[in-house]
UniProtKB/TrEMBL annotation:
<dbReference type="Pfam" id="PF05721">
    <property type="entry name" value="PhyH"/>
</dbReference>
<keyword id="KW-0223">Dioxygenase</keyword>
<protein>
    <submittedName>
        <fullName>Phytanoyl-CoA dioxygenase family protein</fullName>
    </submittedName>
</protein>
<dbReference type="InterPro" id="IPR008775">
    <property type="entry name" value="Phytyl_CoA_dOase-like"/>
</dbReference>
<dbReference type="GO" id="GO:0051213">
    <property type="term" value="F:dioxygenase activity"/>
</dbReference>
<keyword id="KW-0560">Oxidoreductase</keyword>
């Protein structure tokens, strides 16, 4: 099936030069974003009742869709994980994951007729204020996702991202230098596990080599990130959780993906040392 090219020549060039690309107003707020926000609001309401938390949600609005969430995690931080898991099954979100415009972008950037969606590679992140345990440190998505080497992350916020909320941080041009070896557990944060526990070899000096970009964004915007671009979640220094969506696509025709059988990484239960022992140090 032939897909229509969506990105301009300048946008394509910028993606390949920087390893990421911000596209303003890519999604329709009313059609694509607000149904997801409303589902989040409803799930929070159900859990407030389930756990008998005495809090009256604000009337629904796209600006306050997360009303009651801080009260949930204040009562028990584990309830935040229940929200996170529930949101993976919301139809409005899954419809966005499978948006045909995503297929077209992958086809255009990767010159493929076979784009794929990484199972276990999509979800809605909730980065809570001043919480380090689940903050994603410096990483490349390929190492924690696999599937194929030239995948693309579709990153989009559900609230307006300010400096205080902590925008995603990107090492400009780092994708050109290939994959970086990792250690499976960051000694600085022994409570982090899985993909959150990964740390680069000589990380501080590695990151200093690149200009850091931290683009601000708002609902409807899209940031495309190359699987090999070094990036990290920003620090949330606000009093509100940072809500964002990640949807990961890959190219079936890429040789590394074919070699490993398009296997996934942590979410698929595979250890890096088993699939890519050369990436461990």
């Amino acid at each position: 099936m032939e897909l229509k090219s969506i990105l301009s020549k300048d946008q394509v060039n910028q993606f390949f030069k920087d390893g990421f690309l911000k596209i303003e107003s890519f999604y329709d707020k009313q059609k694509d974003i607000e149904p997801i926000q409303y589902h989040i609001y409803c799930i929070i309401g159900l859990l407030l009742k389930k756990y008998n938390i005495d809090f009256q949600q604000l009337p629904y609005s796209s600006l306050d869709f997360d009303s009651g969430y801080q009260e949930l995690i204040a009562a028990d931080r584990k309830i935040g994980g229940e929200v996170y898991d529930a949101l993976k099954h919301v139809p409005s979100f899954l419809r966005l994951v499978c948006n045909e415009k995503h297929d077209a972008i992958v086809a255009q950037l990767r010159q493929t007729t076979l784009p794929g969606i990484a199972n276990g590679g999509y979800g809605i992140r909730i980065d809570n204020p001043k919480e380090e345990k689940y903050r994603a440190g410096w990483h490349q998505d390929y190492t924690s996702q696999f599937r194929s080497l030239d995948g693309i992350v579709f990153w989009s916020p559900l609230i307006k991202i300010t400096e205080e909320l902590g925008p995603v941080q990107l090492c400009t041009g780092s994708h050109k230098d290939g994959l970086v070896p990792v250690h499976a557990q960051d000694p600085r944060y022994p409570d982090k596990s899985g993909a959150y526990g990964l740390v680069f070899k000589d990380e501080a000096n590695l990151v200093r080599r690149y200009p850091i970009a931290a683009p601000l964004s708002e609902p409807g915007d899209l940031i495309l990130i190359d699987y090999q671009t070094i990036h990290a979640s920003g620090y949330n220094n606000s009093n509100r959780s940072r809500w964002s969506m990640q949807m990961r696509y890959f190219n079936y025709e890429e040789p590394t993906g074919i070699r490993i059988g398009w296997k996934g990484s942590f979410a698929a239960g595979n250890a890096i040392k088993e699939i890519h022992p050369e990436l461990m140090f």
